[in-house]
């Protein structure tokens, strides 16, 4: 009987240990898997319905989505889902939201509160606003008003308010990464945003594209841009950089330090590689596959040389080619999937 009790206790303990192990592994899988998302743009006349797109996110186990505006079809499809949502305030709404708390409240009511079972994580108040353009002065006040609306509903700890900038705000040259600084003429735009983010413990969102850096300076080794360099390429004091993505990201961290906010977090709100539309040598399906696959693997496993203990949260641009995007032809060839929902190339998010 004593032996049976020991066996029973051991069996019970083993079961508990197995259960604990499963829960730990599930937590680890969820944590690592949740570092990567995909941007869902809708500037195309041949894209599948939003409901089918959200089903694709589930099918491919993509756990984060960036919406550039309150796409009602997508928000409806996201009800009850665990997918984390980065939701954009449209650039054209910045002026009226910045000047009216009531309009900010109304926007939050219509696009957030009315979707109480959607897993919102970020609200992005404007995307790549020109720091010296006519909308620049609206961004920080609009962020403040959206934040007040979120706070009044006791959602400030769950939903973080920010804005998305491009790396064009960095001064030239910003090399090596430790020399990173913001352009002086952009500081009147950036300083109130940075102060807001620090005050509300929100991250800065950065659209970060090694492709454009490489394209503007073909002396850079393409392996360095594609995460395939076999050894470090850039040495910055004690830090060694084996890929351009980390170098650019740490340049922004250095710029934040010089702006007095070195503890501020960064989320990479866009990154990707075009599969066509450029010179045909660099803008290929194979290079897009290599970059995006390596980006996903890198984000899962690593911080940066400057922030080795920090996780990187990043969003791949984009779910589909968007045939109605304005600008050069290259702007219409960033998709992971064709409008038919077929993958452009194999990519594993897990």
UniProtKB/TrEMBL annotation:
<feature type="signal peptide">
    <location>
        <begin position="1"/>
        <end position="33"/>
    </location>
</feature>
<comment type="similarity">
    <text>Belongs to the glycosyl hydrolase 17 family.</text>
</comment>
<keyword id="KW-0732">Signal</keyword>
<dbReference type="GO" id="GO:0005975">
    <property type="term" value="P:carbohydrate metabolic process"/>
</dbReference>
<dbReference type="InterPro" id="IPR000490">
    <property type="entry name" value="Glyco_hydro_17"/>
</dbReference>
<keyword id="KW-0326">Glycosidase</keyword>
<keyword id="KW-0378">Hydrolase</keyword>
<dbReference type="GO" id="GO:0042973">
    <property type="term" value="F:glucan endo-1,3-beta-D-glucosidase activity"/>
</dbReference>
<dbReference type="InterPro" id="IPR017853">
    <property type="entry name" value="GH"/>
</dbReference>
<dbReference type="InterPro" id="IPR044965">
    <property type="entry name" value="Glyco_hydro_17_plant"/>
</dbReference>
<dbReference type="Pfam" id="PF00332">
    <property type="entry name" value="Glyco_hydro_17"/>
</dbReference>
<protein>
    <recommendedName>
        <fullName>glucan endo-1,3-beta-D-glucosidase</fullName>
        <ecNumber>3.2.1.39</ecNumber>
    </recommendedName>
</protein>
């Amino acid at each position: 009987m004593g032996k049976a009790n020991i066996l029973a206790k051991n069996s019970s303990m083993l079961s508990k240990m197995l259960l604990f192990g499963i829960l730990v592994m599930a937590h680890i899988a969820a944590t690592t898997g949740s570092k990567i998302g995909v941007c869902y743009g809708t500037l195309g006349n041949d894209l599948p319905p939003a409901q089918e797109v959200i089903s694709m996110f589930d099918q491919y186990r993509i756990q984060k989505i960036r919406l550039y505006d309150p796409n009602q079809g997508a928000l409806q499809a996201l009800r009850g889902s665990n997918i984390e949502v980065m939701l954009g305030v449209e650039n054209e709404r910045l002026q009226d939201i910045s000047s009216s708390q009531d309009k900010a409240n109304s926007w939050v009511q219509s696009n957030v509160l009315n979707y109480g079972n959607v897993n919102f994580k970020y609200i992005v108040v404007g995307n790549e606003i020109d720091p010296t353009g006519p909308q620049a002065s609206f961004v920080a006040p609009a962020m403040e008003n959206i934040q007040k609306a979120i706070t009044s509903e006791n959602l400030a700890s769950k939903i973080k308010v920010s804005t998305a900038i491009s790396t064009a705000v960095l001064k030239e040259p910003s090399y090596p990464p430790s020399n990173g600084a913001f352009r002086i003429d952009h500081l009147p735009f950036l300083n109130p945003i940075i102060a807001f983010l620090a005050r509300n413990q929100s991250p800065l969102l950065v659209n970060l594209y090694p492709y454009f850096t490489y394209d503007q300076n073909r002396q850079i080794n393409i392996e360095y841009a594609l995460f395939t360099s076999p050894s470090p390429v850039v040495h910055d004091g004690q830090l060694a950089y084996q890929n351009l993505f980390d170098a650019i990201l740490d340049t922004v961290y250095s710029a934040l330090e010089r702006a007095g906010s070195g503890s501020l977090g960064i989320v990479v709100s866009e990154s990707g590689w075009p599969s066509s539309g450029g010179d045909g040598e660099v803008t290929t399906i194979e290079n897009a596959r290599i970059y995006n696959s390596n980006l996903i693997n890198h984000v899962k496993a690593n911080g940066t040389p400057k922030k080795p203990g920090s996780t990187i949260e990043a969003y791949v641009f984009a779910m589909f080619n968007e045939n109605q995007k304005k600008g050069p032809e290259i702007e219409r060839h960033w998709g992971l999937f064709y409008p038919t929902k077929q993958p452009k190339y194999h990519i594993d998010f897990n």
